[in-house]
Here is the input.
Amino acid sequence: MLPDPKYRDVMVTKFVNNLMLDGKKTLAYDIFYSALEIVEKRLNENGLEIWRKALNNVTPAVEVKSRRVGGANFQVPTEVRPERKISLGMKWMIKYARLRGEKTMHDRLAAEIIAASKGEGASVKKKDDTHRMAEANKAFSHFRF
Here is the structure.
């Protein structure tokens, strides 16, 4: 995977590829860069660093996987691979940015990045719910594959 043209970062390219709809990569880059500019204006800090902090706040450490044992399904908590952590965090951030109420996608993504960097917002809540579910089902951790 090639790094993005502005920041020379492969993570940004992965995020933009997840953000992209119908193969419109130029539009996805435009949305991402505009969102980072909005973040910089609102917080007077480096937008890329805030985005990295937000992504770090959204990445889960554990998740539950369904495992069938003796005719019953158990939610078994498992560690998340490092690549999957990042991809889950990106997908959750984009999903909940799309569900926000702001007018344009630039504003939605910027607001979700700001909220996630502060440890708030729907994507951070999703991570907390995932962790809570894993904690509640840790009695079944001996069923790990």
Notes: The longest helix spans residues 25-43. Strands lie at 62-69, 72-79. The chain has one domain: 10-143.
